[in-house]
Amino acid sequence: MALYVLLGFSAGLPFYMFSTVLQLRLTAHGIELVVIGFFGWVQLLPTFKFLWAPLLDRFDVPGFGRFWGKRRGWIMLSQLGIFTSMAAMAFTAADKSLAVTALFAVLLAFWTTTLEVAADAWRIELAPTQDEQGPIVAANLWGYRTAMVAAGSGALLVADQAGWTQAYLLIATAAFLPFPLLVGMRPEIKGSGGRWVALATGLVASAVILAVAAAVTAAIGSVVLQLAAAAGISSKSNVTPVVLIICMVPFIIMALTLRTIRSAPPTAWFRKSPAIGPYVDIFWRFGYGALAILAFVSLYRMGDVLALNLSKPLVKSIGYTLTQIGTADGLVALLSSMAGVALGGWLTTRWSQSWTLALGAALAAFGNFGFVWLAHQAPSNTVLYIATAADQFGNGFAGAVFVVYLSMLVNPRYPGAQYAFLSGFAFLLARLLAGAVGSMQKAIGYDAFFVMSGVLSLAAILFLPIIGRMKPRAPDHDTI
Protein backbone atom coordinates (compact mmCIF):
# COMPACT_ATOMS: atom_id res chain seq x y z
CA MET A 1 0.00 0.00 0.00
CA ALA A 2 2.80 2.41 0.89
CA LEU A 3 4.55 1.55 -2.38
CA TYR A 4 1.49 2.49 -4.41
CA VAL A 5 1.03 5.74 -2.55
CA LEU A 6 4.62 6.50 -3.61
CA LEU A 7 4.06 5.45 -7.23
CA GLY A 8 0.87 7.50 -7.42
CA PHE A 9 2.74 10.51 -6.04
CA SER A 10 5.48 10.10 -8.67
CA ALA A 11 2.96 10.04 -11.52
CA GLY A 12 0.67 12.76 -10.18
CA LEU A 13 3.21 15.55 -9.70
CA PRO A 14 3.94 16.15 -13.41
CA PHE A 15 0.32 15.96 -14.62
CA TYR A 16 -0.76 19.45 -13.60
CA MET A 17 2.51 20.87 -14.94
CA PHE A 18 1.67 19.99 -18.55
CA SER A 19 -2.08 20.65 -18.17
CA THR A 20 -3.63 23.15 -15.74
CA VAL A 21 -0.44 24.93 -14.61
CA LEU A 22 0.76 25.22 -18.21
CA GLN A 23 -2.58 26.72 -19.24
CA LEU A 24 -2.30 29.38 -16.53
CA ARG A 25 1.31 30.04 -17.54
CA LEU A 26 0.29 30.56 -21.17
CA THR A 27 -2.61 32.77 -20.04
CA ALA A 28 -0.18 34.92 -18.03
CA HIS A 29 1.91 35.41 -21.18
CA GLY A 30 -1.09 36.61 -23.19
CA ILE A 31 -1.57 33.54 -25.40
CA GLU A 32 -5.02 33.36 -27.02
CA LEU A 33 -7.57 31.01 -25.44
CA VAL A 34 -8.01 29.02 -28.66
CA VAL A 35 -4.25 28.35 -28.82
CA ILE A 36 -4.25 27.39 -25.14
CA GLY A 37 -7.00 24.93 -26.03
CA PHE A 38 -4.71 23.39 -28.66
CA PHE A 39 -2.22 22.67 -25.85
CA GLY A 40 -4.91 20.44 -24.36
CA TRP A 41 -3.95 17.93 -27.05
CA VAL A 42 -0.72 17.28 -25.13
CA GLN A 43 -2.96 15.22 -22.86
CA LEU A 44 -3.58 12.88 -25.79
CA LEU A 45 -0.26 11.15 -25.06
CA PRO A 46 -1.75 8.96 -22.30
CA THR A 47 -4.51 7.97 -24.72
CA PHE A 48 -2.03 6.43 -27.15
CA LYS A 49 0.07 4.64 -24.54
CA PHE A 50 -1.09 1.30 -25.96
CA LEU A 51 1.30 1.96 -28.86
CA TRP A 52 4.37 1.51 -26.68
CA ALA A 53 2.91 -0.39 -23.69
CA PRO A 54 3.82 -3.83 -25.17
CA LEU A 55 7.48 -2.75 -25.10
CA LEU A 56 7.26 -2.43 -21.31
CA ASP A 57 5.91 -5.99 -21.03
CA ARG A 58 8.51 -7.38 -23.42
CA PHE A 59 11.80 -5.58 -22.68
CA ASP A 60 13.88 -4.56 -19.66
CA VAL A 61 15.68 -1.25 -19.26
CA PRO A 62 19.43 -2.01 -19.55
CA GLY A 63 21.13 -1.93 -16.17
CA PHE A 64 18.03 -1.05 -14.15
CA GLY A 65 16.07 -4.14 -15.23
CA ARG A 66 18.84 -6.61 -14.41
CA PHE A 67 18.97 -5.55 -10.76
CA TRP A 68 15.59 -3.99 -9.90
CA GLY A 69 13.39 -5.93 -12.31
CA LYS A 70 11.32 -5.02 -15.36
CA ARG A 71 8.62 -2.92 -13.69
CA ARG A 72 10.87 -0.93 -11.36
CA GLY A 73 13.40 -0.47 -14.17
CA TRP A 74 10.86 1.28 -16.37
CA ILE A 75 9.65 3.36 -13.43
CA MET A 76 13.19 4.57 -12.75
CA LEU A 77 13.78 5.46 -16.42
CA SER A 78 10.46 7.31 -16.47
CA GLN A 79 11.40 9.36 -13.41
CA LEU A 80 14.60 10.48 -15.12
CA GLY A 81 12.54 11.47 -18.16
CA ILE A 82 10.07 13.40 -16.00
CA PHE A 83 12.85 15.30 -14.23
CA THR A 84 14.73 16.31 -17.37
CA SER A 85 11.56 17.33 -19.25
CA MET A 86 10.27 19.45 -16.40
CA ALA A 87 13.66 21.09 -15.91
CA ALA A 88 13.65 21.96 -19.62
CA MET A 89 10.18 23.50 -19.23
CA ALA A 90 11.55 25.55 -16.32
CA PHE A 91 14.37 27.06 -18.37
CA THR A 92 12.02 27.89 -21.26
CA ALA A 93 9.31 29.34 -19.00
CA ALA A 94 9.17 32.65 -20.89
CA ASP A 95 7.32 30.77 -23.67
CA LYS A 96 9.04 32.82 -26.38
CA SER A 97 8.71 29.80 -28.69
CA LEU A 98 5.45 27.90 -28.37
CA ALA A 99 6.91 25.07 -30.44
CA VAL A 100 9.68 24.55 -27.85
CA THR A 101 7.14 24.76 -25.01
CA ALA A 102 5.03 22.13 -26.76
CA LEU A 103 8.06 19.85 -27.30
CA PHE A 104 8.98 19.67 -23.62
CA ALA A 105 5.33 19.42 -22.55
CA VAL A 106 4.89 16.41 -24.85
CA LEU A 107 8.05 14.76 -23.48
CA LEU A 108 6.84 15.35 -19.93
CA ALA A 109 3.47 13.78 -20.79
CA PHE A 110 5.19 10.82 -22.50
CA TRP A 111 7.41 9.92 -19.55
CA THR A 112 4.61 10.48 -17.04
CA THR A 113 2.45 8.09 -19.04
CA THR A 114 5.22 5.50 -19.28
CA LEU A 115 5.54 5.56 -15.50
CA GLU A 116 1.80 4.94 -15.19
CA VAL A 117 1.90 2.01 -17.64
CA ALA A 118 4.61 0.23 -15.64
CA ALA A 119 2.90 0.91 -12.31
CA ASP A 120 -0.54 -0.19 -13.57
CA ALA A 121 0.80 -3.47 -14.94
CA TRP A 122 2.49 -4.23 -11.63
CA ARG A 123 -0.69 -3.32 -9.71
CA ILE A 124 -2.85 -5.71 -11.73
CA GLU A 125 -0.31 -8.51 -11.27
CA LEU A 126 -0.23 -7.94 -7.50
CA ALA A 127 -4.02 -7.59 -7.00
CA PRO A 128 -6.01 -9.69 -9.50
CA THR A 129 -9.47 -9.54 -7.79
CA GLN A 130 -11.95 -6.68 -7.27
CA ASP A 131 -11.69 -6.89 -3.47
CA GLU A 132 -7.90 -6.56 -3.70
CA GLN A 133 -8.04 -3.82 -6.32
CA GLY A 134 -10.26 -1.46 -4.29
CA PRO A 135 -7.77 -0.71 -1.48
CA ILE A 136 -4.68 -0.65 -3.70
CA VAL A 137 -6.38 1.66 -6.21
CA ALA A 138 -7.39 3.95 -3.35
CA ALA A 139 -3.79 4.02 -2.10
CA ASN A 140 -2.47 4.75 -5.58
CA LEU A 141 -5.00 7.53 -6.19
CA TRP A 142 -4.33 9.04 -2.75
CA GLY A 143 -0.71 9.44 -3.78
CA TYR A 144 -1.64 10.58 -7.29
CA ARG A 145 -4.16 13.19 -6.22
CA THR A 146 -2.03 14.37 -3.31
CA ALA A 147 0.75 15.02 -5.82
CA MET A 148 -1.59 16.73 -8.30
CA VAL A 149 -2.84 19.06 -5.58
CA ALA A 150 0.69 19.68 -4.32
CA ALA A 151 1.86 20.45 -7.85
CA GLY A 152 -1.08 22.67 -8.69
CA SER A 153 -1.14 24.55 -5.41
CA GLY A 154 2.61 24.68 -4.78
CA ALA A 155 3.50 25.65 -8.34
CA LEU A 156 1.00 28.52 -8.44
CA LEU A 157 2.02 29.90 -5.06
CA VAL A 158 5.71 29.80 -6.01
CA ALA A 159 5.02 31.21 -9.49
CA ASP A 160 3.12 34.14 -7.97
CA GLN A 161 6.06 34.98 -5.72
CA ALA A 162 9.21 33.87 -7.57
CA GLY A 163 8.25 33.12 -11.18
CA TRP A 164 7.46 30.14 -13.37
CA THR A 165 11.05 28.88 -13.66
CA GLN A 166 11.38 28.40 -9.91
CA ALA A 167 7.94 26.77 -9.78
CA TYR A 168 8.82 24.13 -12.39
CA LEU A 169 12.24 23.45 -10.83
CA LEU A 170 10.62 22.92 -7.43
CA ILE A 171 8.11 20.38 -8.76
CA ALA A 172 10.82 18.66 -10.85
CA THR A 173 12.91 18.16 -7.71
CA ALA A 174 9.93 16.85 -5.75
CA ALA A 175 9.03 14.43 -8.56
CA PHE A 176 12.56 13.00 -8.49
CA LEU A 177 12.60 12.26 -4.74
CA PRO A 178 11.33 8.64 -5.10
CA PHE A 179 14.26 7.76 -7.41
CA PRO A 180 16.89 7.37 -4.66
CA LEU A 181 14.37 5.37 -2.62
CA LEU A 182 13.95 2.94 -5.50
CA VAL A 183 17.73 2.72 -5.90
CA GLY A 184 17.98 1.64 -2.26
CA MET A 185 15.40 -1.16 -2.59
CA ARG A 186 16.46 -4.81 -2.64
CA PRO A 187 17.08 -6.52 -5.99
CA GLU A 188 14.33 -8.35 -7.85
CA ILE A 189 16.36 -11.57 -7.84
CA LYS A 190 19.07 -12.51 -5.36
CA GLY A 191 22.53 -12.72 -6.88
CA SER A 192 21.64 -10.36 -9.72
CA GLY A 193 24.93 -8.45 -9.46
CA GLY A 194 26.21 -5.22 -7.98
CA ARG A 195 23.84 -2.35 -7.26
CA TRP A 196 26.21 0.45 -8.30
CA VAL A 197 27.25 -1.21 -11.55
CA ALA A 198 23.59 -1.68 -12.42
CA LEU A 199 22.87 1.95 -11.53
CA ALA A 200 25.76 3.30 -13.63
CA THR A 201 24.79 1.13 -16.60
CA GLY A 202 21.17 2.15 -16.25
CA LEU A 203 22.02 5.86 -16.12
CA VAL A 204 24.11 5.66 -19.30
CA ALA A 205 21.41 3.68 -21.11
CA SER A 206 18.76 6.11 -19.86
CA ALA A 207 20.69 9.11 -21.20
CA VAL A 208 20.75 7.51 -24.66
CA ILE A 209 17.05 6.59 -24.52
CA LEU A 210 16.05 10.09 -23.36
CA ALA A 211 18.06 11.74 -26.14
CA VAL A 212 16.56 9.48 -28.81
CA ALA A 213 13.04 10.09 -27.49
CA ALA A 214 13.60 13.87 -27.58
CA ALA A 215 14.96 13.76 -31.14
CA VAL A 216 12.08 11.61 -32.41
CA THR A 217 9.50 13.81 -30.69
CA ALA A 218 11.04 16.97 -32.18
CA ALA A 219 11.02 15.46 -35.66
CA ILE A 220 7.39 14.33 -35.41
CA GLY A 221 6.38 17.68 -33.93
CA SER A 222 8.00 19.56 -36.77
CA VAL A 223 6.03 17.53 -39.33
CA VAL A 224 2.76 18.04 -37.43
CA LEU A 225 3.26 21.81 -37.25
CA GLN A 226 4.03 21.99 -40.96
CA LEU A 227 0.90 19.99 -41.79
CA ALA A 228 -1.21 22.22 -39.51
CA ALA A 229 0.16 25.33 -41.17
CA ALA A 230 -0.51 23.88 -44.63
CA ALA A 231 -4.10 23.09 -43.56
CA GLY A 232 -4.55 26.69 -42.45
CA ILE A 233 -5.13 25.89 -38.77
CA SER A 234 -4.66 28.95 -36.59
CA SER A 235 -6.06 30.67 -33.50
CA LYS A 236 -9.06 31.72 -35.62
CA SER A 237 -9.90 28.18 -36.74
CA ASN A 238 -13.01 26.34 -35.53
CA VAL A 239 -11.68 22.80 -35.23
CA THR A 240 -14.65 21.32 -33.33
CA PRO A 241 -16.46 19.77 -36.37
CA VAL A 242 -13.25 18.15 -37.63
CA VAL A 243 -12.47 16.76 -34.17
CA LEU A 244 -15.97 15.28 -33.83
CA ILE A 245 -15.54 13.46 -37.16
CA ILE A 246 -12.15 12.10 -36.07
CA CYS A 247 -13.75 10.88 -32.82
CA MET A 248 -16.05 8.58 -34.79
CA VAL A 249 -13.26 6.88 -36.77
CA PRO A 250 -12.13 4.39 -34.06
CA PHE A 251 -15.68 3.10 -33.57
CA ILE A 252 -16.23 2.66 -37.31
CA ILE A 253 -12.97 0.71 -37.69
CA MET A 254 -13.76 -1.55 -34.73
CA ALA A 255 -17.31 -2.26 -35.94
CA LEU A 256 -15.99 -3.28 -39.37
CA THR A 257 -13.37 -5.68 -37.97
CA LEU A 258 -15.30 -7.25 -35.07
CA ARG A 259 -16.90 -10.05 -37.08
CA THR A 260 -13.51 -11.22 -38.34
CA ILE A 261 -11.97 -11.05 -34.85
CA ARG A 262 -14.88 -12.86 -33.20
CA SER A 263 -14.72 -15.85 -35.58
CA ALA A 264 -10.93 -16.12 -35.74
CA PRO A 265 -9.30 -19.34 -34.48
CA PRO A 266 -6.51 -19.15 -31.86
CA THR A 267 -3.97 -19.76 -34.62
CA ALA A 268 -4.87 -16.55 -36.48
CA TRP A 269 -1.82 -14.32 -36.80
CA PHE A 270 -3.49 -11.28 -35.26
CA ARG A 271 -4.47 -13.26 -32.15
CA LYS A 272 -0.94 -14.58 -31.67
CA SER A 273 0.85 -11.34 -32.51
CA PRO A 274 2.74 -9.87 -29.51
CA ALA A 275 2.10 -6.38 -30.93
CA ILE A 276 -1.67 -6.45 -31.46
CA GLY A 277 -2.72 -9.78 -29.91
CA PRO A 278 -3.41 -8.29 -26.45
CA TYR A 279 -5.78 -5.72 -27.99
CA VAL A 280 -7.52 -8.18 -30.31
CA ASP A 281 -8.16 -10.35 -27.23
CA ILE A 282 -10.46 -7.66 -25.76
CA PHE A 283 -12.74 -7.76 -28.81
CA TRP A 284 -12.54 -11.55 -29.08
CA ARG A 285 -13.72 -11.92 -25.46
CA PHE A 286 -16.49 -9.29 -25.46
CA GLY A 287 -17.57 -9.35 -29.13
CA TYR A 288 -19.94 -6.55 -30.14
CA GLY A 289 -20.35 -5.78 -26.46
CA ALA A 290 -16.86 -4.28 -26.65
CA LEU A 291 -18.34 -1.37 -28.63
CA ALA A 292 -20.77 -0.61 -25.79
CA ILE A 293 -17.96 -0.90 -23.24
CA LEU A 294 -15.69 1.44 -25.19
CA ALA A 295 -18.52 3.92 -25.75
CA PHE A 296 -19.20 3.91 -22.00
CA VAL A 297 -15.57 4.35 -20.95
CA SER A 298 -15.12 7.10 -23.54
CA LEU A 299 -18.03 9.04 -22.06
CA TYR A 300 -17.59 8.37 -18.35
CA ARG A 301 -14.76 10.86 -17.66
CA MET A 302 -15.37 13.16 -20.62
CA GLY A 303 -17.08 15.87 -18.57
CA ASP A 304 -14.21 16.00 -16.09
CA VAL A 305 -11.55 16.21 -18.80
CA LEU A 306 -13.32 19.02 -20.65
CA ALA A 307 -13.92 20.94 -17.41
CA LEU A 308 -10.27 20.57 -16.39
CA ASN A 309 -9.11 22.43 -19.48
CA LEU A 310 -11.27 25.51 -18.89
CA SER A 311 -11.84 25.59 -15.13
CA LYS A 312 -8.70 27.58 -14.32
CA PRO A 313 -9.09 30.09 -17.18
CA LEU A 314 -12.68 30.61 -15.95
CA VAL A 315 -11.59 31.18 -12.35
CA LYS A 316 -8.83 33.54 -13.49
CA SER A 317 -11.26 35.51 -15.66
CA ILE A 318 -13.56 36.08 -12.68
CA GLY A 319 -10.76 37.93 -10.91
CA TYR A 320 -9.09 35.40 -8.61
CA THR A 321 -5.31 35.66 -8.17
CA LEU A 322 -2.80 32.83 -8.63
CA THR A 323 -2.33 32.79 -4.85
CA GLN A 324 -6.09 32.35 -4.27
CA ILE A 325 -6.30 29.62 -6.90
CA GLY A 326 -3.21 27.92 -5.47
CA THR A 327 -4.63 28.01 -1.95
CA ALA A 328 -7.90 26.45 -3.11
CA ASP A 329 -5.93 23.78 -4.97
CA GLY A 330 -4.04 23.06 -1.75
CA LEU A 331 -5.62 21.74 1.42
CA VAL A 332 -9.23 22.15 0.23
CA ALA A 333 -8.70 20.16 -2.97
CA LEU A 334 -6.47 17.60 -1.27
CA LEU A 335 -8.90 16.72 1.54
CA SER A 336 -11.90 16.67 -0.80
CA SER A 337 -10.15 14.49 -3.36
CA MET A 338 -8.82 12.02 -0.79
CA ALA A 339 -12.27 11.73 0.79
CA GLY A 340 -13.79 10.98 -2.63
CA VAL A 341 -11.10 8.38 -3.43
CA ALA A 342 -11.49 6.72 -0.03
CA LEU A 343 -15.28 6.48 -0.30
CA GLY A 344 -15.08 5.21 -3.87
CA GLY A 345 -12.46 2.58 -3.03
CA TRP A 346 -14.45 1.44 0.00
CA LEU A 347 -17.79 1.18 -1.84
CA THR A 348 -16.26 -0.92 -4.62
CA THR A 349 -15.75 -3.68 -2.04
CA ARG A 350 -19.43 -3.52 -0.95
CA TRP A 351 -21.61 -2.34 -3.83
CA SER A 352 -22.03 -3.66 -7.34
CA GLN A 353 -20.04 -1.98 -10.09
CA SER A 354 -23.15 -0.48 -11.67
CA TRP A 355 -24.20 1.36 -8.52
CA THR A 356 -20.74 2.74 -7.75
CA LEU A 357 -20.25 3.86 -11.36
CA ALA A 358 -23.66 5.59 -11.37
CA LEU A 359 -22.91 7.46 -8.16
CA GLY A 360 -19.50 8.46 -9.51
CA ALA A 361 -21.06 9.93 -12.67
CA ALA A 362 -23.60 11.90 -10.62
CA LEU A 363 -20.96 13.33 -8.28
CA ALA A 364 -18.70 14.29 -11.20
CA ALA A 365 -21.60 16.09 -12.90
CA PHE A 366 -22.43 17.95 -9.68
CA GLY A 367 -18.83 19.19 -9.51
CA ASN A 368 -19.01 20.50 -13.09
CA PHE A 369 -22.29 22.30 -12.44
CA GLY A 370 -20.54 23.97 -9.51
CA PHE A 371 -18.46 26.05 -11.91
CA VAL A 372 -21.63 27.57 -13.38
CA TRP A 373 -22.64 28.60 -9.86
CA LEU A 374 -19.14 29.94 -9.20
CA ALA A 375 -19.23 32.13 -12.32
CA HIS A 376 -22.29 34.02 -11.01
CA GLN A 377 -20.96 34.71 -7.50
CA ALA A 378 -18.88 37.67 -6.40
CA PRO A 379 -15.21 36.64 -5.96
CA SER A 380 -14.86 35.12 -2.50
CA ASN A 381 -12.50 32.58 -0.99
CA THR A 382 -15.45 30.69 0.50
CA VAL A 383 -17.22 30.40 -2.85
CA LEU A 384 -14.01 29.24 -4.54
CA TYR A 385 -13.38 26.65 -1.81
CA ILE A 386 -16.91 25.22 -2.08
CA ALA A 387 -16.71 24.87 -5.87
CA THR A 388 -13.23 23.35 -5.66
CA ALA A 389 -14.28 20.88 -2.96
CA ALA A 390 -17.32 19.69 -4.94
CA ASP A 391 -15.26 19.26 -8.10
CA GLN A 392 -12.40 17.39 -6.44
CA PHE A 393 -14.63 15.12 -4.34
CA GLY A 394 -16.57 14.06 -7.44
CA ASN A 395 -13.40 13.55 -9.47
CA GLY A 396 -11.80 11.49 -6.70
CA PHE A 397 -14.81 9.22 -6.26
CA ALA A 398 -15.41 8.73 -10.00
CA GLY A 399 -11.71 8.12 -10.61
CA ALA A 400 -11.47 5.38 -7.97
CA VAL A 401 -14.49 3.36 -9.11
CA PHE A 402 -13.53 3.79 -12.78
CA VAL A 403 -10.00 2.42 -12.29
CA VAL A 404 -11.39 -0.66 -10.54
CA TYR A 405 -13.91 -1.19 -13.36
CA LEU A 406 -11.22 -0.96 -16.07
CA SER A 407 -8.94 -3.31 -14.12
CA MET A 408 -11.67 -5.96 -13.99
CA LEU A 409 -12.00 -5.89 -17.79
CA VAL A 410 -8.35 -6.89 -18.25
CA ASN A 411 -7.21 -10.39 -19.17
CA PRO A 412 -4.49 -11.25 -16.56
CA ARG A 413 -2.33 -12.59 -19.40
CA TYR A 414 -1.87 -9.04 -20.77
CA PRO A 415 -2.12 -6.68 -17.78
CA GLY A 416 0.14 -3.90 -19.02
CA ALA A 417 -0.98 -3.74 -22.64
CA GLN A 418 -4.72 -4.17 -22.07
CA TYR A 419 -4.99 -1.72 -19.19
CA ALA A 420 -2.97 0.78 -21.23
CA PHE A 421 -5.39 0.37 -24.13
CA LEU A 422 -8.57 0.60 -22.05
CA SER A 423 -7.45 3.50 -19.88
CA GLY A 424 -6.00 5.27 -22.92
CA PHE A 425 -9.10 4.78 -25.06
CA ALA A 426 -11.24 5.97 -22.15
CA PHE A 427 -9.77 9.45 -22.62
CA LEU A 428 -9.29 9.48 -26.40
CA LEU A 429 -12.50 11.29 -27.35
CA ALA A 430 -12.36 13.56 -24.31
CA ARG A 431 -8.81 14.68 -25.00
CA LEU A 432 -9.45 15.13 -28.70
CA LEU A 433 -12.31 17.45 -27.79
CA ALA A 434 -10.18 19.11 -25.10
CA GLY A 435 -8.07 20.72 -27.78
CA ALA A 436 -11.20 22.43 -29.10
CA VAL A 437 -12.49 23.77 -25.77
CA GLY A 438 -11.27 27.26 -26.61
CA SER A 439 -13.37 27.22 -29.77
CA MET A 440 -16.36 25.83 -27.85
CA GLN A 441 -16.16 28.52 -25.18
CA LYS A 442 -15.92 31.17 -27.85
CA ALA A 443 -19.11 29.84 -29.47
CA ILE A 444 -21.33 29.06 -26.45
CA GLY A 445 -19.75 30.76 -23.42
CA TYR A 446 -18.60 29.44 -20.06
CA ASP A 447 -22.06 28.69 -18.61
CA ALA A 448 -23.23 26.49 -21.47
CA PHE A 449 -19.84 24.79 -21.64
CA PHE A 450 -19.88 23.63 -17.99
CA VAL A 451 -23.55 22.63 -18.18
CA MET A 452 -22.66 20.53 -21.22
CA SER A 453 -19.70 18.89 -19.43
CA GLY A 454 -21.94 17.92 -16.50
CA VAL A 455 -24.63 16.49 -18.75
CA LEU A 456 -22.01 14.36 -20.54
CA SER A 457 -21.02 12.82 -17.20
CA LEU A 458 -24.66 11.96 -16.45
CA ALA A 459 -25.16 10.49 -19.94
CA ALA A 460 -22.75 7.66 -19.12
CA ILE A 461 -25.36 6.25 -16.70
CA LEU A 462 -27.52 5.26 -19.68
CA PHE A 463 -25.00 2.53 -20.59
CA LEU A 464 -24.96 0.86 -17.16
CA PRO A 465 -27.96 -1.48 -17.68
CA ILE A 466 -26.17 -2.84 -20.77
CA ILE A 467 -22.57 -3.17 -19.59
CA GLY A 468 -23.62 -4.37 -16.13
CA ARG A 469 -24.88 -7.65 -17.61
CA MET A 470 -21.90 -8.32 -19.88
CA LYS A 471 -19.69 -11.34 -19.30
CA PRO A 472 -16.48 -12.05 -21.25
CA ARG A 473 -16.25 -15.08 -23.52
CA ALA A 474 -14.48 -18.06 -21.97
CA PRO A 475 -10.90 -18.48 -23.29
CA ASP A 476 -10.29 -21.22 -25.84
CA HIS A 477 -7.68 -23.91 -25.27
CA ASP A 478 -4.78 -21.95 -26.78
CA THR A 479 -5.35 -18.82 -24.68
CA ILE A 480 -5.72 -20.36 -21.21
TrEMBL record:
Question: What InterPro entries does its record include?
Answer: AmpG_permease/AT-1 (IPR004752), MFS_trans_sf (IPR036259)
Where does the record say this protein resides?
Membrane
GO cellular component terms, A-Z: membrane
Q: Which residues cross the membrane?
A: 33-52, 73-94, 100-122, 165-184, 196-229, 241-261, 282-302, 322-343, 355-376, 382-407, 419-438, 444-467
Q: Which domain of life is it from?
A: Bacteria
Keyword match tRNA-binding: no
Q: How does it sit in the membrane?
A: Multi-pass membrane protein
- Keywords, A to Z? Membrane, Transmembrane, Transmembrane helix, Transport
* Protein name as annotated: Permease
Phylogenetic classification of the source organism = Bacteria, Pseudomonadati, Pseudomonadota, Alphaproteobacteria, Sphingomonadales
